[in-house]
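>> Question from a student workshop board

For tomorrow's exercise we were told to take the sequence and the ligand below, predict the bound structure, and bring the output to class. My setup keeps failing. Could a helper post the expected result so I can at least see what it should look like? The ligand is oxa(dethia)-CoA.
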Amino acid sequence: MTNRTQNAVITGVGMYVPETVLDNKYFEKIVDTTNEWILSRTGISERRIIENGTTSDLATGALRDLMASSGLQAEDIDVIIICTITPDMFFPATACIVQNNVGAKNAWGFDLSAACSGFLFGLETGSALIESGRYKKVVVIGADKMSSVIDYTDRNTCILFGDAASAVLLESTSDTNYGIQDSILHCDGSGKDALCMLGGGSKNPASYETIDKGYHFIYQDGKTVFKAAVNGMADVSYKIMQKHNLTGDDVAYLVPHQANLRIIDATAKKMNITRDKVMINIGKYGNTTAATIPLCLTEYYRDGKVKKGDKLILAAFGAGFTWGSMYIVWGID
Ligand code: UT7
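>> Workshop helper replied:
Here is what the output should look like for this input. Compare the format with yours to find the bug.
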């Protein structure tokens, strides 16, 4: 399958979703929208919001769940990668806070910013650390408190996003039939204005003016992002399938970023993959940015729907623009 003698393989999963549920009826009360519009245009019924807590709390919850379910000991973790665009603070990295929360005293770590493609970029980075032979246990966590950057008076964006975190453990396997097989990843900064948060960084440091202009909220040109997402995700997913001589029949699941059910359906159609072979949980959680893909993997695995040896195509598109696809073979019994 590959020329490598060792592959990185996912050997454990974990997740954390906060308790508070905001359903579509709630949004009918706060902005000019309807349950029918939200459901038909996005596929979202409800999303979760953390009321008293931060991204590190979400990530810590997911890591603790991973540790409890996989037997991973805190002191055995070598690296913690937190994929997020909503870190607790600019610095220190959220990874440091999570490291301290779980007592991973032998770990180093860092935050990775690639928006909705964050988990794929993190999985690629974590895999390379494992394949280098220098690290044995790398944790990759997608975590975002999107409610911290949402304008709840903007109907274009507020209905879309939710808060969540999900974690995977990467270890090495000498059976290269399993694990992370390949990736095609891209970024294109010419799309930077279509999906961004303008304020707070070195371009527009926080000021009364940036607050007045709402620069601390997400801005999205939905239509532009929609088109780019369908084309980008389908293109790389199709390419990676071709490269590995995979047909829709060979693939157990497409695992797409959960931004919009119409984007997911359009991507699957272009790949000739039927709806029953697409992981979907957007209805329950909305778009949780870096958390969507590992959240799908965790839920489908725990529901017994993913089996060892299953071929999965992961695909994402997000701010940057960033996008990509990964081919993995599930390695947990
Ligand atoms: O995860 C990162 C990547 N992000 C994405 O992939 C998201 C990509 N974009 C999308 O998913 C879709 O573009 C949206 C769900 C954001 C919007 O759906 P759309 O079908 O593209 O709607 P639109 O932006 O073309 O708006 C159509 C109409 C507009 O009204 P007018 O101008 O035609 O009168 C909007 O103002 O729908 C209106 N609208 C709403 N109406 C009711 C926008 N949001 C709402 C709403 N409720 N919540």
